[in-house]
Amino acid sequence: MKLRSFSIRSGRTIDYFGINAVQNMERFVSNMKRIYIVASRSAAKTSGALNDVITILEKFKILYRIYDRVLPNPSKDIVNEVSADIWRFGADSIIAIGGGSVIDTAKISSVIAECGGTVEDYITDPGKFCGSIPVIAINLTHGTGSEVNRYAVVTIEQPRTKVGLASEYMYPAISIDDPRYLLSLPINQTIYTTLDAFYHAIEAACGRNSSPYIVAMAEEVVKVISEWLPRTVRDLRNLDCRFWLLYASMLAGIAIDNSRAHLIHAIENVLSGLNTSLPHGAGLAMLGPAAISYLYASEYEILHRILRHLDPSIQPDPSDSIKAGEAVRRFQQSVGFSERLSNYGFTVNDADRVVETVENVLSYALKQAPIEVSRETIRAIYLEAL
């Protein structure tokens, strides 16, 4: 199929998708004077995205400043630093060039720079959101979905975990999904980020806010990933592969925008908050097979429709819940993922801390799950991933 460019609206965001989609940015920035760029440390350059953006800004003689010190699983201190710098610079707009950590940082900072305060204020008082500086999100992974939704995640200290924020003001004004920028994504990040999109689709489809619309999108996401991720890990420079995985990621981002992530993300946000070197998608993939077995027992009709693309022999019956989880595990292994939480220093001794933090801080996410999540369920999923 021809790689056709298109645009799509998600909430307040217009997403421009396709080869050379970044050129659509020109009409948005042409009358601006000062733009603040939040960029990933290396991928913004190696992908070519930063150079393309600077070429456009210089064409219109726009003054810009670049911040490139965002770390994975960004802390509240980084978000507060960026938002203060944006305010001092007097930016007309913010351009985020990176994956989820960069885009989330830009989205939260756009609100704080407009409304004042610190990120802690918005965690404790959702009514604090009052507006935002327009954000242009240039996505460099096929996993985040942040370029098309109203969510952002930040790491806090007490207790050490990641928490999610949601606001209509955090939709990017426009976003760019250009598969050219994914050609330099290394194999580990290719796998991690694609599995992030996979679990966005799974959780959105079986969450309490799901609908036939969400389930249809989720099925498409998993169908595309099951076909194109194995091809991509064998040929990282294949533009067709990158196009379709980026398409799946974008759909999954819209799916969770209209539904919610829940069980798997809640546990993982604690884990990558405790150890920020744990890639988010990797954490999800470690927890996912066991968690899916629990979810399948309740939502077997929906999850059968989706997971049959991994294993056609799965039956729409709760007795196949273990088989469903194992089908996901086998697929992950087939594309080269077999990591365990123990590889990142987690042990049995961490179980109580993880369970307590999930229950006490991420309970808002657990409420979106289709099952009642007990302490024993959280513990079992965690221990299975060690």
UniProtKB/TrEMBL annotation:
Pfam (any one): Fe-ADH
Q: Which Gene3D superfamilies match?
A: 3.40.50.1970, Dehydroquinate synthase-like - alpha domain
What residues does the Fe-containing alcohol dehydrogenase-like C-terminal domain cover?
190-385
Q: What domain of life does the native source organism fall in?
A: Archaea
> What molecular functions are annotated in GO for this chain?
alcohol dehydrogenase (NAD+) activity; metal ion binding
Alcohol dehydrogenase iron-type/glycerol dehydrogenase GldA domain residues are 16-179
UniProt keyword terms in alphabetical order: NAD, Oxidoreductase
Recorded hits in PANTHER family, A to Z, give:
ALCOHOL DEHYDROGENASE, ALCOHOL DEHYDROGENASE 4
Q: Which family does it belong to?
A: Belongs to the iron-containing alcohol dehydrogenase family.
Protein name (Swiss-Prot/TrEMBL): Iron-containing alcohol dehydrogenase
Origin organism of this chain? Ignisphaera aggregans
